[in-house]
Amino acid sequence: MHGKSIAEHVKCVEAFVKDFGSERIALVTSGGTQAPLEKNTVRFIDNFSMGTRGATSTEYLLAAGYTVIFMHRESSLLPFSRHFPSLFTMLHVEDGKAVSSDAKLVDNIQKSIHYRNRILFVPFVTLDQYLHLLEGICTVLEPLHERVLVYLAAAVSDFYIKHDDLPTHKMKTEEVSLPLSVVPKNLQRLVEDIVPRSFVVSFKLETDESILVEKARKALSSYGHQLVVANMLHTRKEHVVLVDNEKEMHIRLTDKNKEIEEDIIDNIKERHSDHMANAGTAQ
Ligand code: PMT
């Protein structure tokens, strides 16, 4: 969390949104949440998410004209730098300076400088931080109504141990006890009470394909939002299904030089345009 409290992060969002100049703004959530197993945390429940979906989508959202609040798991992948997992080995020293002539690196540094006034980074680590930040940021965004796209690509923990049930100290191996509770879904409250006019996209991840679309439909009817992007764990980079109240649309990556997020964002931008137009929001 870079030493900032939830309230301080929300204040930064307030200041950022005040100066926001573009017609659309996206809140992107990205990466996995950590659920502690002890108050003095040594162990925790975590998940596989590296934040690729969120970081990649953010690059395409910026290119599509969005201002982005990038709410990400600390140390998960970030837009532009995500392409370079081993930056250190790409550099050499010339006249006492670390330099590189790698064209892709130069291009991505230039892009990140170009967009730096249109992106705000808000880090989280734990499930609790995620839930409070999401609610706080959405509250700040509410007055922007239909211009807001909420893009929930984070992999949020489904289980946690309630604060009162957490042992204070490192759990002893001979006394292991994990009284797990199911994390209450906050999406319905978000959609109904906090950002009722925004365009809200949630993600659904499954490992059993036979229940994927059914689960996405269930989420749509339970939460009342606009779109679910459904994906399977092992094929999520090549295939997604966009599920709305009327139909399903498959996006399949056919060009190996492309990223699936480019097509996802193209499609979502169009849907968001319709959402704004239906509400009479100027574009
Ligand atoms: O980061 P990558 O490695 O690229 O992986 C990307 C991804 C697979 C994580 C991403 O594409 C994805 O599918 N994210 C959603 C994972 C998921 O299935 O979440 P869920 O079923 O636990 O939650 C569904 C929706 O409910 C989510 O959009 C979430 O914001 C929302 N939710 C979750 C928990 C909670 N307490 N309240 C919620 O409202």
Q: Which key terms come to mind for this protein?
A:
two-stranded antiparallel sheet, 32% helix, 7 helices, 283 residues, alpha/beta, eight-stranded mixed beta sheet, Rossmann fold
What does it look like?
Helix content is 32%, strand content 22%. By secondary structure, it is α/β, with parallel strands linked by helices. It has one domain: CoaB-like (Rossmann fold). The strands form four sheets. An eight-stranded mixed sheet has the order 7-4-1-8-11-12-13-14, with helices on both faces. Bound molecules: ligand PMT.
The hetero molecules present are: ligand PMT
**Mean pLDDT over the full residue set:** 95
CATH architecture level-2 label: 3-Layer(aba) Sandwich
- What count of helical segments does DSSP give? 7
- SSE series: HEEEHEEEHEHEEEHEHEEEH
Radius of gyration: 20 Å
Number of strands: 14
Strand order across the biggest sheet? 7-4-1-8-11-12-13-14
Q: Report strand %.
A: 15-25%
What is the CATH third-level topology name?
Answer: Rossmann fold
